[in-house]
Amino acid sequence: MKLVTCGLPYANGKAHIGHLRTYIPADVYVRYQRLKGEDVVFVCGSDSHGTPIVVNAEQQGLSPGELVDVYHEHFQKIFKALDVEFDYYGRTDSDYHHERTREIVRTLLDNGYIYPKEIELAYCPKCDRFLPDRYVEGICPYCGAVARGDECDQGCGRHLEPGEILQPKCKICGTSAVFKKQKHYYFRLTAFSDFLKDFIVNLKGTENALNYAREWINKELKDWCITRNLEWGVRFPGDENLVVYVWVDAPIGYISFTEKACEKLGKDWKEIWIDGKAEIVHFIGLDIVYHHCIFWPAMLKGAGYALPSAVIASGMVKVEGKKFSKSRGYVVWVEEDYLASGLSPDYLRYYIVNYTSHQKDLNFSWHVFRDKVNNELIATLGNFIYRVLHFAWKNFGEVRMNELDGDVLEQIRLATEKIKKAIDEWEFKEASDAFMELAGFGNVYFQTSKPWELVKEDKDEAERVIASALAIVRALAVLAYPVLPRAMGKVAESIGLDLDNVRLDSVFEIPEVINVKKPRAPFTKIDDGMIEELEKRMLERISGKGGEGNKEADEERVGIEEFAKLDIRVGRILKAERIKGSKKLMRLEVDIGSEVRQIVAGIAENYSEDELKDRLVVVLANIKPAKLMGVESNGMVLAADVNGKAVLLEPEKPVEPGAKVK
Q: What is the 3-class SS of 383-403, one letter each residue?
């Protein structure tokens, strides 16, 4: 048995093309597994908790539950429209999910893996409340950039624990926050270091996920604060004033949704999650690898549950060659842009799985999309299928399937084996390439055999040619069905094939006779005018003419005049020393040409004092001074974030301190 899950979509906004990088390949994988005869349970659900939902609900004058209702229904509608078929699609604000989460947290408490700790948290004296996550804004202790309470979203991108942020302010009223002590609860992740090192050796999945996980496990693990000051969420057992952190309760949804799916399917969920009798496969985005390969298996181990077998992480998504960004307009909304245009879900499913390898970055371009549909799906696959079916229907109606061409059967066998291998390796592009190559072979076979001439001279020979071509069509209906369920459903209907009761090996179980009904073209060509309209809509959004979200995008863009205000120079580090009481901060004395500046940088975990001395760096010199751990910083040293590690920028060739960066 297999359990396949998808990372839970956050019920705080509409579905976009980035979401589909996870859900469509997972659905394709499940369909292929079932064609192979596997017993598969497929679950997902809405992630209903967390500070962003509370903040968004407040801004819209809704309760958090009402906001979740809107987006939960939206995602269910989108998945149905795209033929992504879960056995159960739940939501984490359901009673059954709260019960399962509290049971697991209680078990972790009883087993000594959760402990209380008094910490200092940002507190707003005006609002009279502690400020969780995105209710607070301040300075990142690692890089000195402006950051929100749970993440340095404008700087190094690091996760921030409660109480770590410096110079906190309340995002609701703007008041400077103070730090007050409060008891919270921590998950003892450090206790699982040896377990995780062994676990990752046996974990299967895409190399991008496994490589990230190995890198994190080899670093120093830290215990996680797993409680928050919110009204909305799963109440923490033993302290009802706190709720469980969303990254504890969200993955537990995989378990609670499995329970509900098994009720529906007549299975025992404990065989999967307690007895370990199933292969558990997680499909996720690359940005949540840490949670699924480190935090989640440690929780499961501590609570006595079965462990994941594989983690399949997709590459990132770009739009028209640019980094995916909702605020900047580089986004394709599934409902408003795609489905509202009347485009077939099969086209998008094919593009998502066939554009590139699953773990590489996918670029969505409307022109490339049109070309892949018109030049591949229609010109190769659709053209072959329709020509064969129409010829068979018009000239025979009933085709005797004997004396099939041996080379045709061999090509069908090769395509089937390629697909089996590709799916086992999560290479969905290779699987879709395999059935497209078979269609290409079919086109050559049909064209070379010239049945339209044979039928006039030797109808029996023409029937033998059409029988072999029909064997390819029948194989394609099965092999391409997981990617193109609607189009292949039409094809199967034309030849009396029941796709609900076939297996991959059914391509060789060819009936003695096939009755061909009047066929319908499996695909419709995409008009250039439609693509131009869709691209125009995107350009308007990017340029700030497409609505409120794009006004924000316009505001985020900077002109050359604003860039010119930045005083960026090359500096030379004269002295470097660690700041007492901080593992991350380093006090630097940097010669920037006109003077020597004291700068505090969050690089102590990545660089030693000795290797920093006399090093050339790039400095933002006219940033406002800030105090970090009581030490004033008069500048910012620029660095690239590489998997959470700061990598200092430096000039290619030696230059004098003070040289301007333009």
A: HHHHHHHHHHHHHCCEEECCC
How far apart, in whole angstroms, are the C-alpha atoms of residue 336 and residue 77?
A: 13
Q: Read off the tokens for 46.
A: 């809405």
Between CA 536 and CA 530 the distance in angstroms is: 10
pLDDT band for position 563 (cuts 50, 70, 90): confident
pLDDT reading at 554 higher than 50: no
**Using CA atoms, how far apart are residues 216 and 207, in angstroms rounded to an integer?**
14
Annotated binding site for ATP: 326
What SS3 state is found at 288? helix
Helix (H, G, I), strand (E, B) or coil at 270: helix
The residue extents of the domains of the chain are: 2-106+244-314, 112-235, 375-515, 561-648
Question: CB of 243 within 8 A of CB of 1?
Answer: no
Q: Is residue 662's pLDDT more than 60?
A: yes
How far, in Å, CA of 451 to CA of 385, rounded? 15
Rounded-to-integer distance, Cα 335 and Cα 471, Å: 37
Short-list 410, 318, 430, 335, CA closest to 76: 335
Q: What is the topology classification, in CATH, of domain 561-648? A: OB fold (Dihydrolipoamide Acetyltransferase, E2P) (2.40.50)
Rounded CA-CA distance 506/498 in Å is 11
Confidence class for position 644, pLDDT limits 50, 70, 90: low
DSSP letter assigned to residue 117: E
Q: What does the pLDDT average to over 344-368? A: 95
Instruction: List the binding residues for Zn(2+).
Output: 140, 143, 152, 156
Counting Cβ atoms within 10 Å, is residue 151 exposed (0-12), middle (13-18) or buried (19+)? middle
* Residue 548 pLDDT: 38
Annotated binding residues: 140, 143, 152, 156, 326
Q: Tell which CATH architecture fits domain 2-106+244-314.
A: 3-Layer(aba) Sandwich (3.40)
CA 6 to chain centre: 9
DSSP three-state, residue 452: helix
Length of the chain: 662
Domain covering 112-235, topology: Methionyl-trna Synthetase; domain 2 (2.170.220)
pLDDT band, very low/low/confident/very high, at 27 (cuts 50, 70, 90): very high
**What pLDDT, on the 0 to 100 scale, is given for residue 555?**
43
Report how far residue 526's alpha carbon sits from residue 262's, in angstroms, rounded to the nearest whole number: 41
Question: Measured between alpha carbons, how far is 317 from 364 in angstroms, rounded to an integer?
Answer: 7
Total Cβ atoms within 10 A of residue 321: 9
Going by their DSSP bridges, the two strands 40-46 and 2-6 should be labelled as parallel
Rounded Cα distance between 361 and 343, Å, is 23
Please identify which residue in the block is written with the tokens 């770009």.
318
Distance CA 390, CA 527 (A): 24
In the CATH hierarchy, which fold is given to the domain comprising 375-515? Isoleucyl-tRNA Synthetase; Domain 1 (1.10.730)
Task: Give the C-alpha separation, 545 to 537, whole Å.
Answer: 9
Two structure tokens written together for 593: 């040409």
